[in-house]
């Protein structure tokens, strides 16, 4: 079993190198098999199609991203407000850099998103659970006043979706994306902040 997994990872590594150089559309299973010094028939024992390989590359990328973002959640002595801000900005930077490595990654990401949407949904769920964790921290410290952290995490994710793998949605430079992201995140955080009861009563009376 260990040997099987090692071979799969070797195939993934070879595929990443070829896809980065030639792109998804110009890569064949026969070429990948040759890169791995195995027959095409042997390659099919591990992956039934090129799309299956692309799916696994995407899944591993999403897992790595979630692990890096988990480090933001675990940082000690950081207010929840700043933790959420750092988390969302870090997510944009990580995913932007992932696609910026090579334009061929954008092609593959678009294909996987279209043909295997469940993979992206799995990645979104991992990140969403981390956002919910930050929101719960904010509730505990009194920074936030949120009734349903899971629902709110989902809405935050929807509001900031443009800034996750942003090249898939926009041709803006990183500087301009950061400017937009800061503005959107500020609006979200202002809406999440706990308000004093006197202020709430005053607003209701008006």
TrEMBL record:
Keywords: DNA-binding, Transcription, Transcription regulation. GO terms for molecular function: DNA-binding transcription factor activity; transcription cis-regulatory region binding. It comes from the Bacteria. The keyword Membrane does not apply. Residues 5-65 form the HTH tetR-type domain. The keyword Transmembrane helix does not apply. Residues 28-47 bind DNA. PROSITE patterns: HTH_TETR_2. InterPro entries: Homeodomain-like_sf, HTH-type_TetR-like_transc_reg, HTH_TetR, Tet_transcr_reg_TetR-rel_C_sf, TetR_C_27. This is TetR/AcrR family transcriptional regulator. The lineage of its organism: Bacteria, Pseudomonadati, Pseudomonadota, Alphaproteobacteria, Rhodospirillales.
């Amino acid at each position: 079993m260990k040997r099987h997994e090692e071979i799969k990872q070797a195939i993934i590594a070879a595929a990443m190198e070829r896809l980065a150089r030639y792109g998804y559309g110009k890569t064949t299973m026969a070429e990948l098999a040759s890169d791995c010094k195995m027959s095409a028939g042997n390659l099919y024992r591990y992956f039934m199609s090129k799309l299956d390989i692309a799916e696994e590359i995407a899944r591993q990328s999403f897992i790595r991203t979630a692990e890096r973002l988990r480090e933001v959640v675990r940082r000690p002595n950081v207010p929840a407000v700043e933790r959420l801000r750092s988390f969302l900005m870090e997510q944009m930077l990580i995913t932007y850099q992932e696609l910026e490595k090579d334009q061929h990654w954008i092609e593959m990401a678009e294909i996987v998103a279209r043909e295997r949407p469940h993979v992206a949904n799995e990645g979104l769920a991992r990140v969403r659970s981390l956002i919910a964790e930050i929101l719960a921290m904010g509730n505990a410290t009194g920074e936030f006043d949120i009734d349903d952290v899971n629902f709110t995490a989902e809405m935050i994710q929807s509001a900031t979706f443009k800034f996750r793998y942003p090249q898939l949605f926009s041709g803006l430079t990183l500087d301009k994306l950061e400017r937009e992201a800061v503005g959107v995140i500020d609006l979200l955080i202002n809406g999440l902040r706990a308000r004093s009861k006197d202020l709430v009563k005053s607003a209701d009376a008006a």
